[in-house]
Write a structure and sequence with these properties.
homodimer, about 190 residues, 9 helices, DNA-binding
DNA sequence: TTAATAGTGAACATATTGTTCTCTTTTATT
DNA sequence: AATAAAAGAGAACAATATGTTCACTATTAA
C-alpha cells in the first residue's frame, strides 16, 4: 500500500541477501539485518515475525519470479521441445539464473544454499507436475508420476548446485545438454 | 580412551537424535540436549565445541558406517551388477536405511533432513567416484565424470528424501528398480 | 591405593530475541 | 497547503541461550 513499506521491505531483502553472501544463514542476526538495512528494530518485526519468515518471503519472491517466467515460456515451447535445445524450459531457467536478477546466485552459492535450493525444488516440482499432466508426456508406465517429477526436479536442482559450486564454468546451453542427456532417455 | 567418555558421547548422540525426531535442528538448545542426556553442561562442551560440531560428528559416525558397509559389499558385487537387482550397491544402501540402525530414519525424516542428506550425498559421491574410477564403467564420453557422479548421488539422495516423505511405502527392492530405471539408461 | 582423568553443577558475562513504549516522519487525501 | 492516518525510529525491557570458569566429586587405569 504505502510506498515506504515496499521500500523498507526491499531494503531488508537486500541487506539480508548481501549478508547471506557473506555468512551462513543461521549465524546472521536480526541486529545485523536491521543495521545494514538502516531500519528500526520495530519496523523489522512489523514486517516479518521471525528470521525464518523473512527467508520464506525472500524465496517466494525470488523463485516465484523465475518460475512464473518459465511457466509463460512453457506455453509456447512446451516442457521439452525435442528439436532445438535452447528453447527448453530448463535452459530458460538456467539463463535466468545466470542473469542473476536480484542476486539469486549470491543466495545459491552461499553457505546455506541448500535452504534455497529446497524452495527452488518445490516450485520446480509444481511446474513440472503441471506440465506433465497438461502434456500427458509420461510414456513411462513403469514409474510412478510423482517419482519422475521428483527425479527431474531433484536432478535439476542438484545440477544447479554442482554448477555453482564449480564456479559455473559451463554455459546454460551446455548444462542444458547435460541435463537432456540424463533426462530424455527416461521419458 | 575412557569408557566413560564413550558412554557420555553415546548418551549425547542419542539424546540429540531423539530431539531431532521431535523438532527442527535450529530450535534445539544445548540445554535440552544435556538435560535429556543427563550430562553436565561442562561435559557437553568438553566433548563438542558447538552444536554444529555435534551434528557433524553424528553424521560422520552414522553415514560412515553405512557407506563403509556399502563399500565392502561393492568389492564383491560391483557398483551395479547388471543381472540381479537386489545385489546393487543402492539396494544395499536402501536396505540399510530401512533397518534403521541408530535411528537414521528419525534423522532423515525430521524437519532438518536436508542437512543430513547433504552429508549423506557427500559420502555417497566419494563412494561412486571411486567406483567409477576403479571400474572404468563410464562409457558415456559426452558427459563429464564429475557431472555424472553428482547426478547419480544427487538423484539417489533426492529419491531417499522422496521415499521418506511419502512414508516409505515402497520396499528397498522396488525403489532400487525405480533408480535403475532412471540411471542405467545413461551409463 | 592412588594419581590422573572425567564429570558435576552453580555462577557468570555476553549476546540474541521479541515486545512495548513514546516520539518523529512520511504519505494520501482533502 | 493542512491534516489525519499510517509507518518508522530508537530506547528500554524481560526472557532466553551461549560458552566459560570455578571448586568439587566420582571413576578409572596402573
Amino acid at each position: 500500500m504505502d510506498r515506504r513499506q515496499q521500500k523498507t521491505r526491499a531494503a531488508i531483502f537486500q541487506a539480508f541477501g548481501s549478508l547471506l553472501a557473506e555468512q551462513c544463514y543461521s549465524h546472521i542476526t536480526v541486529q545485523e539485518i536491521i543495521d545494514r538495512a538502516n531500519v528500526g528494530r520495530t519496523t523489522f518485526y512489523a514486517h516479518f515475525e521471525t528470521k525464518d519468515e523473512l527467508l520464506k518471503a525472500l524465496c517466494e519472491n525470488l523463485f516465484g519470479h523465475i518460475i512464473s517466467s518459465a511457466k509463460d515460456c512453457t506455453h509456447t515451447h512446451g516442457l521439452y521441445s525435442a528439436g532445438s535445445a535452447p528453447e527448453s524450459i530448463f535452459c530458460h531457467l538456467l539463463q535466468h539464473l545466470q542473469e542473476n536478477d536480484n542476486n539469486v546466485l549470491g543466495l545459491l552459492s552461499c553457505e546455506s544454499s541448500e535452504i534455497f535450493l529446497r524452495y527452488f525444488k518445490d516450485s520446480l516440482s509444481d511446474l513440472i507436475q503441471s506440465q506433465f499432466i497438461i502434456q500427458n508426456r509420461h510414456t513411462n508406465r513403469d514409474l510412478p508420476d510423482d517419482f519422475l517429477v521428483n527425479h527431474i526436479s531433484g536432478s535439476f536442482v542438484e545440477m544447479v548446485l554442482w554448477w555453482i559450486k564449480g564456479r559455473m564454468k559451463q554455459t546454460p546451453e551446455e548444462l542444458d545438454r547435460y541435463f537432456r542427456s540424463v533426462i530424455e532417455p527416461i521419458l
